[in-house]
Design goal:
This protein is mostly beta strands. It has a single domain (44-177), classed as Sandwich (Jelly Rolls), CATH 2.60.120. 5% of the residues lie in helices and 41% in strands. It is built from 2 helices and 13 strands, in the order ββββαβββββββββα. It has helices at residues 32-37, 167-170, and strands spanning 2-5, 12-15, 18-21, 24-27, 46-53, 57-63, 70-76, 78-85, 96-102, 108-111, 115-121, 125-132, 141-143. It has a 6-stranded antiparallel β-sheet, with no helix packed on it. Strands 9-8-11-6-13 form a 5-stranded antiparallel β-sheet, with no helix packed on it. Strands 3-4 form a two-stranded antiparallel ribbon. Strand 3 (18-21) and strand 4 form a beta hairpin. The chain is globular. It starts with a strand and ends in a 12-residue tail after the last helix.
Length: 182
Amino acid sequence: MEFINTKIPDVIIIKPIVFEDDRGFFMESYQKQAFYEVGIPHEFVQDNHSSSQMGTLRGLHYQLTHTQGKLVRVVIGEIFDVAVDLRKCSPNFGHWVGARLSAENKHQIWIPPGFGHGFLALSDRTDVLYKATDYYDLGGERCIRWDDPDLAIDWPIPENITPLISQKDSSALYFKEAEVFS
């Protein structure tokens, strides 16, 4: 695996080694020792699967309690995945990084605890799998507006597409109002 640093050093793109032939392909999507060697010593306790149609925008989600790190990959379609640093003590507080993940490129992204996470589905059907380092906690869940002007995320929304947003996400708080990490 190749581990690629982003402009926020704690967020890492993982590019697996893919062995392809006329039968299909094989790749390791997770290897504990390799992750530990690059500074990702987390254990995963939960796997999640999300399916979305073109233009669905989910996020920006995070949990104040049972804070989750996430290892995200796409098995059908393509997304633009975003991580926002919500740690006040970080020099990157309030900054975001985005990456295109697809079934074709097989890239993954590591989003450590303390970050908000969201994605935009860029294909007719998109299936996202992600591993989490802690369990889902409804009471600790928070959400920041995907279109917050202070974050100024450059979502690659296709022309003639209006993002499909859940009620929860459309009523999310702005970054300035949100509870964040110390």
